[in-house]
Amino acid sequence: xxxxxxxxxxxxxxxxxxxxxxxxxxxxxxxxxxxxxxxxxxxxxxxxxxxxxxxxxxxxxxxx
Length: 64
Fold this sequence. Notes:
Elements: H1 2-20, H2 24-35, H3 44-57
């Protein structure tokens, strides 16, 4: 029973992290390592700053 509960909580945690974008920086760094091995990844702060600036410049279809 405890194992099932742990797995369920882990799944819910993963879902919310994906929904909120908490894993995006790690995914971006993995992409850089795979496809651009010589490139140094930006700091997490620089990554989010650039991403938010891009979203503000090109809002696209979003609610707010």
